[in-house]
Amino acid sequence: MIEIYYKNNEVQTYESVNEIEYQADSIFSIRFIGFHHSDLETIAQKFDLDLTSFSKKEDIEISSHYIESNTQLSLNFTIPSYSANTYFEEKDIYILIKNNIVFTFLSPDIEESLNQLTQYIYNLKSTSFESYHQLFLFQIGVISDYYADIVELISKKIKDLFQKTLQSKQFKENDLDYIAALKFNNLLIRESLSEFQKILLLLKKSSKYNDTSFDKINEEIDDLTVIADYLRYNFNRLDDLSGNINSKIELEQNKIFKILTIITVCISLPTLIVGIYGMNFKYMPELQWVLGYPLIILLLILSFIFPLIYFKRKKWF
């Protein structure tokens, strides 16, 4: 789907590039939602765009994610996406600015998440844009809010897990796997956030933006710095939580080993007695006793019970 935001604040949607009558003077923004890479050549020709940044998304150099020329500005970065699974998924976002138009390429799930967040935070009916600069900076702000939203989601899950840990006495490997998943999600957000911050720092140095834009970008950078602090805090809490669960698991294991030790000691004395009377000596006076068998049975029982009483008094169990 293609969504076009016109200068008269009208929004139109199209299914194909060929349906669009391209008039740059009347357009603020064009969003390509769920685009196919096979369509990029057609899009590049239709709107006279340089899409080389699409082939550089795997590069780690920031220069591959922020490309500015005399005619075009290209930004590309990944952003964690909500998933039905435990783990987040990385989704690509491409933003290009040319001929005073903001071109955005993103996946449908990211588009849906950003739209839901936008409708929740902003009153879109009373929101209008006087320039592509305002619309572009608005998008930057929505992405920053999205980062804050997913970090808040991770923080809530960590808090809920902490409460569960405090109330529960039994733990499974799934709990540690869940903590590992939260750490992985937190790591994805941190990497994506760091990349986005670097892009904004480079954008702030661009000569194409006025003082108002400069102030807005600074505000977003400050907000992202606060979010990054929360991410570090989440890592610390996850480490504490992992250590807490491991400690409780070790305590449970120690209790099990203690019980096994008690049982071993209690059994060892009767085993020793049985071993002695199981020897094939010719002269064993107890073998001639009339009450020898019941006495040995009683001795076996007492040799098992006395150690239990002793360990009970020592509060081993």
TrEMBL record:
GO terms for cellular component: plasma membrane. It catalyses: Mg(2+)(in) = Mg(2+)(out). It comes from Ancylomarina salipaludis. Belongs to the CorA metal ion transporter (MIT) (TC 1.A.35) family. It is found in: Cell membrane. Its main location: membrane. The keyword RNA-binding does not apply. GO terms for molecular function: cobalt ion binding; cobalt ion transmembrane transporter activity; magnesium ion binding; magnesium ion transmembrane transporter activity. The chain crosses the membrane at residues 256-279, 291-311. Keywords: Cell membrane, Ion transport, Magnesium, Membrane, Transmembrane, Transmembrane helix, Transport. This is Magnesium and cobalt transport protein. Mediates influx of magnesium ions. Alternates between open and closed states. Activated by low cytoplasmic Mg(2+) levels. Inactive when cytoplasmic Mg(2+) levels are high. It is a multi-pass membrane protein.
